[in-house]
Specification:
The complex is a heterodimer of chains A (238) and B (119).
Chain A (H helix, E strand, L loop, with lengths): L1 H7 L4 H20 L8 H16 L3 H12 L2 H7 L1 H6 L1 H6 L1 H25 L4 H7 L6 H11 L3 H25 L5 H23 L1 H27 L6
Helix pairs in contact in A: 2-3, 2-4, 8-9, 8-13, 9-11, 10-11, 10-13, 11-12, 12-13
Chain B lengths: L1 H23 L5 H16 L4 H12 L1 H14 L8 H34 L1
Classes of the chains: A mainly alpha (238), B mainly alpha (119).
């Protein structure tokens, strides 16, 4: 049995098949339990996949080596995000002044609060570097984390949790501040909750969805450009 | 084969981005530079070719699947994070609450100013 498993793991095919199977099974299961808004289908799929790997006794490093072939597609997928960005140029132009001021501050604060809190609670530098890109969409965040020396696995877990809580908090804070403008709700969801928040924003409406994609893309770009530079400033990592 | 032709375009932008990042020593990922190049290219053309849309839309649609191998990793490093749980959870949950509040409050304030400017 072990020999067979080793043989099948010699090529990336098994890892890719397991990932695809877990993705579709997770999606199915997610619908079966009534598609709860607070739980992204990807969380169900990741739990399923982790369970299968543990059951089969497949080492994560071995799995990761094969599944790396799938993650290679993240490069062209990141480039593809240029398409929705171009399609929203009209929106960007009409609101360019508030956006120009708000986006750098909001994107910077999203990273700063998390790093600040973790730093105050004595988290080591590697953990700080993994938490900093928590609000950035995954393909961009992976690049940032690798550059500033964080753990991609921890960053991905943080990304998932951030997306889930951002959806709840935007709802809560918007009600508290009496904000109903779908453009603002979408923007807040995209800036703070990356792709998960953007999916939620499209449920609110097309305007919210468009602004969430915009917030997500621009937060990704700004953080990718500025965070590695900020990380080089002495004293930040303490 | 519009999908494959579009995929080749995306790879082209990615490779040009990679070359720029490497040659100029930029601290950003090749994908981000490729994305900005694609946006700039589309703005210059003023239209989206069917080939690029045919490759870009399905790729964006499966983004969640592409990050799964990374997400799964967090379940396998839980041991190494012992003792850091409070810091990590406080940073993620508290940090996100603060940044959501900052975004909404700031944007409402800025858009309020904008409206006054036009009156």
């Amino acid at each position: 049995m072990n020999e067979l498993l080793d043989h099948l793991l010699a090529t990336p095919l098994l890892a890719i098949a397991l990932t695809l199977a877990a993705y579709f099974a997770g999606d199915r299961l997610f619908r079966l339990v009534g598609a709860p808004g607070w739980c992204p289908p990807i969380l169900v799929a990741a739990l399923l996949l982790a369970g299968v790997l543990a059951l089969l006794g497949i080492d994560y490093a071995d799995y990761r080596e094969g599944a790396g072939w799938l993650m290679l597609l993240l490069g062209p997928a990141t480039v593809a995000l240029g398409l929705p960005l171009y399609q929203q140029m009209g929106h960007i132009r009409t609101m360019w002044r508030p956006l120009l001021l708000c986006l750098p501050i909001a994107a910077g604060m999203a990273a700063f609060y998390a790093v600040g809190i973790a730093w105050l609670l004595n988290a080591p530098p590697e953990t700080l570097a993994s938490l900093a890109p928590k609000s950035v969409t995954a393909p961009i965040a992976i690049g940032i984390t690798e550059q500033i020396g964080g753990s991609v696995s921890l960053m991905m877990g943080g990304l998932l949790l951030t997306g889930v809580v951002a959806i709840g908090f935007v709802d809560l804070v918007a009600r508290w501040l009496k904000i109903r403008d779908p453009r603002l709700l979408g923007l807040a969801l995209g800036i703070n909750g990356h792709a998960l928040g953007t999916v939620r924003a499209f449920e609110i409406g097309p305007a919210a969805g468009a602004f969430a994609s915009l917030g997500m893309s621009l937060t990704g770009i700004l953080t990718a450009l500025l965070l590695p530079l900020a990380w080089r400033l002495p004293g930040l990592v303490g | 084969m519009p999908l494959l032709r579009g995929f080749l375009w995306l790879l082209g932008f990615l490779l040009v981005g990679d070359a720029l990042v490497t040659l100029a020593g930029l601290p950003v990922s090749a994908g981000v530079v490729g994305m900005l190049l694609l946006t700039a290219w589309l703005m210059m053309r003023g239209t989206v070719s069917g080939d690029i849309a045919a490759a870009a839309q399905p790729l964006i649609g499966v983004l969640a699947m592409l990050i799964m191998p990374g997400v799964v990793g967090v379940f396998f490093i839980l041991d190494t994070l012992a003792g850091q749980w409070l810091a990590i959870l406080a940073a993620l949950v508290g940090g996100t609450l603060l940044s959501v509040f900052t975004t909404l409050w700031l944007m409402r304030w800025l858009m309020g100013n904008e409206r006054l400017d036009h009156e």
